[in-house]
Design goal:
With 176 residues, this protein is mainly alpha-helical. It contains eight helices and two strands; from the N terminus they run ββαααααααα. It starts with a strand and ends with a helix. 17% of the residues are buried. Residues 1-12 have low confidence and may be disordered.
């Protein structure tokens, strides 16, 4: 096999007319991606098209429209599976993180409880919310927080107590 030939035959002959190919198959591939209920079907399709063009250019597929289309569908399906796994794993990590952020160590906390705590924190004045976050989640003591923020330790303590009182009030509004 000469350097100008690949497993797909002549390198120039193996290159499809990509514009015509996309006109013929692009919509079907996109429809396939959308019906997988992918979060980013456009990204999955773009990745697929790049990988398919690379495979054709490198001669990793047989010549012909059917072979290229089969490669594209396989690549798209694999990409959609990967994105689905990534999305599920991200949601699981975010759930764990959210529970940790609202100070809940057991799985008994509901998503709603965590959202309520987050909402209550957002309603606090920023100078109180940052102290709560630094003390509870960053596990900093009042002296370290005072040094970090450039305020007196007693100011940190009083803002923290006021923030907890305000959070308790706000959370009672969320109770049914």
């Amino acid at each position: 096999m000469s350097t100008e030939q690949t497993a797909c035959g002549n390198a120039d002959a193996a290159q499809p007319d990509w514009e015509a190919w996309l006109q013929r198959h692009g919509g079907k591939l996109f429809y396939f991606a959308v019906h997988w209920q992918a979060e980013d079907p456009e990204d999955a399709l773009q990745h697929t098209l790049v990988q398919t063009a690379r495979a054709v250019a490198e001669g990793r597929c047989e010549p012909g429209d059917t072979s290229i289309l089969r490669y594209a569908y396989t690549t798209l399906r694999n990409r959609l599976n990967w994105l689905h796994r990534e999305s599920r794993q991200r949601r699981e990590r975010e759930t764990v993180w959210r529970r940790e952020q609202c100070g809940v160590q057991s799985n008994a906390a509901t998503e709603e409880e965590c959202r309520n705590v987050e909402e209550a924190l957002r309603k606090l004045p920023p100078e109180e919310a940052e102290i709560v976050v630094l003390h509870l989640w960053e596990e900093m003591n009042f002296q370290d927080i005072a040094e970090l923020l450039g305020i007196h330790r007693t100011t940190v303590s009083s803002r923290y107590r006021k923030a907890l009182t305000d959070i308790r009030k706000l959370l009672t509004h969320f109770q049914p």
